[in-house]
Specification:
The complex is a heterodimer of chains A (about 300) and B (about 280). Chain A is an all-alpha fold. Chain A contains twelve helices and two strands; from the N terminus they run H-E-E-H-H-H-H-H-H-H-H-H-H-H. In chain A, strands 1-2 form a two-stranded antiparallel sheet. In chain A, a hairpin with a 6-residue loop joins strand 1 and strand 2. The longest helix of chain A has about 45 residues. Chain B has about 280 residues and is mostly helical. Chain B contains 15 helices and no strands. Chain B starts with a helix and ends with a helix. The chains are: A mainly alpha (about 300), B mainly alpha (about 280). Chains A and B meet through helix 1, helix 3, helix 4, helix 5 and helix 6 of A and helix 1, helix 4, helix 5, helix 6 and helix 10 of B.
Chain lengths: ~300, ~280
């Protein structure tokens, strides 16, 4: 009796093993070839300098890293990336959260508002960047004409990176909002009813119930938004001309990566820049993981 | 009681005002894109008096860009890119998601940690090696090159795994008692139950394949192998101050996705909500 049972179990286990591996095989092969090996290749490449006139790689040890640390352009682009993220992430999250709370109630036109606010998400970033560049135009752009101002939105080195961040906020609000609405719908209604009996309504219930109960979603959106804000590229590439006087104070780390790896064809230096991005991303994410214990509530 | 009712009515009005203002902000760039595309260059760049609507709705900008950019080819390439990416993502992620979510076997947890690792690493890390691979295969400027990094999706695998983990055990056990092997159970019982996750992944993949700029720009530089996003990027340099043309091209590039979104908005929004939110 026990014998047959045991054999059955092992039969089952063997079949789960075979089917399991069969099912994950395409994904694992793809993952190893497309992602896992490339991580090491990029790391390996970062120790090489691409030879002049395409003459193969020359091992340079830590030279690229030494160069990155001494490269003013890299540090400036890192500052630019942080400036972008510091504006884009909080604003896109706070505005989206407020909109989500407003749109989570039963109200007329709810679907309509959601549709409109999400719309920028389905437009090509290249097209979005072009129209915004046009709105920002200092001579005949809409913004400078509606408001009687003469701001060089994208060619003043002081503000260009923030102007780009505004485009980023505009494009991502709808996405964040949808995630927040999904999170809000999982908060049981009883909580609000109980709070109402205790006299907490409106703003109070927002801070004492909505925010704590939504904190896992907020945390998730925060982490993923910071990671993708650190990778900003499309907007900078499309908005900033190569001749733009504000380019140096606006280009992001990934923009620089693209420039070195694919325009200047120095893949070694490009790899070093992207390794720097990886390290920074990991550090920031690790800090957030530690920090979450203080403000994220899981029940 | 009466005053409370009035207060809540006022509140409601205020909320609508806020939402209408936000909606207008969201729409202005699109409206401006649309209006400028029909203007003459002089109208587009006129400062005084401020021109909102074109006096005559011209279509010169459209005829000019359609003559210079082969939109049929661009649409075809973009469509093929999206199609293959979605098929690959849904197929591989559904199978792997099932194995990771419902089967117990040696090596599973280690393999799944590789999936998680991929999700945490900035995707630019993969680009140079992937480019060199495509280049060595002699496949630059092909549809294959466009699809290449999307053959598998760590994110999709994770998403589908979540979908399978949420399903009850009973059905699977009943199927097993009826003599289904694991493959049959997956194919006939379990996979159909995760349709909503598959749709979510499909939409997510399609939107991001459509929006991707750097990869198509790197691998496909031939005029006939561009996609909409990379063609727009290329065009910007050539049409420096021809604003109506730039806006017309942007409009032509964006309209199909916007129409699809308006028709299937429920699936889009739910798709993004399920695929982006649950972790």
């Amino acid at each position: 009796m026990t014998n047959t049972k045991k054999r059955k179990v092992t039969g089952r286990a063997r079949s789960e093993f075979l089917w399991g591996w069969l099912f994950i095989l395409p994904t694992m092969i793809g993952l190893v070839i497309l992602n896992i090996i490339p991580i090491f290749q990029t790391l390996y490449q970062s120790f090489f300098k691409t030879g002049d006139f395409g003459r193969g790689n020359v091992f340079v040890g830590l030279d690229n890293y030494a160069q990155v640390f001494g490269d003013k352009e890299v540090w400036q682009s890192l500052i630019n990336t942080f400036k972008y993220a510091i504006v884009e992430v909080p604003f896109s999250i706070i505005i989206a959260l407020i909109l989500a709370v407003l749109l989570n109630r039963k109200m007329r036109g709810r679907g309509f508002y959601r549709t409109i606010i999400f719309l920028p998400m389905v437009a090509a970033p290249a097209a979005i960047a072009m129209v915004w560049r046009w709105l920002y135009n200092s001579d005949f752009g809409l913004i400078n004409n509606v408001f009687p101002i003469q701001v060089k939105w994208v060619s003043d080195p002081q503000i260009a990176v923030f102007s780009v961040a505004v485009i980023g906020i505009w494009s991502i609000i709808g996405y964040n909002m949808v995630l927040f609405i999904a999170g809000l719908q999982e908060i049981p209604h009883d909580f609000y009813e109980a709070a109402e009996i205790d006299g907490a309504t409106g703003v109070k219930s927002f801070f004492y119930i909505t925010i704590p109960l939504l904190s896992p979603t907020i945390f998730f959106v925060l982490v993923t938004r910071i990671i993708s804000a650190l990778q900003v590229f499309d907007l900078m590439y499309m908005v900033m001309d190569k001749s733009n006087p504000a380019l140096e104070k606006t280009q992001s780390l990934v923009y620089l990566f693209y420039k070195y790896a694919f325009i200047n064809k120095n893949m070694g230096y490009g790899s070093t820049i992207v390794i720097l991005l990886l390290v920074i991303t990991l550090i920031i994410t690790a800090f957030q993981m530690i920090g979450q214990k203080k403000w994220v509530f899981y029940n | 009681m009466e005053s409370m009712k009035r207060k809540s009515k006022l509140m409601n009005l205020l909320i609508h005002v806020i939402l209408i203002l936000v909606s207008i902000t969201m729409l202005i760039p699109f409206a401006w894109m649309f209006l400028t595309a029909f203007k003459s260059v002089t109208e587009a760049t006129s400062v005084d008096p401020f021109v909102i609507f074109p006096k005559v709705w011209r279509t010169d900008a459209f005829t000019s860009v359609i003559k210079n950019m082969n939109f049929i080819v661009l649409y075809k390439n973009t469509l093929l890119l999206i199609l293959f990416r979605v098929i690959c993502a849904v197929l591989t992620a559904t199978m792997a998601g099932y194995a990771f979510g419902r089967l117990h076997f040696k090596g599973r947890d280690f393999c799944f940690s590789l999936v998680l690792l991929q999700m945490m690493v900035p995707s630019q890390i993969f680009i140079i090696p992937q480019y060199l691979m495509v280049s060595k295969m002699g496949m630059l400027n092909t549809i294959f090159a466009l699809v290449f990094p999307g053959f598998v999706t760590a994110f999709g695998t994770f998403l589908l795994r979540q979908g399978y983990m949420g399903l009850p055990n009973d059905l699977e056990e009943a199927a097993r008692l009826d003599g289904c092997n694991i493959g049959q159970t997956f194919l006939y019982i379990m996979a159909p139950l995760t349709k909503s996750s598959m749709v979510a992944l499909g939409i997510f993949t399609a939107v991001f394949a459509f929006k991707d700029l750097m990869w198509p720009m790197i691998v496909n530089t031939d005029k006939d192998m561009l996609v909409l996003s990379s063609a727009l990027a290329k065009m910007q340099g050539q049409y420096v101050s021809k604003f109506p043309e730039l806006m017309a091209a942007s409009l032509i590039a964006c309209i199909p996705m916007i129409l699809l979104y308006i028709i299937f908005q429920k699936q889009f929004i739910e798709g993004i909500a399920t695929s982006g939110g649950k972790l």
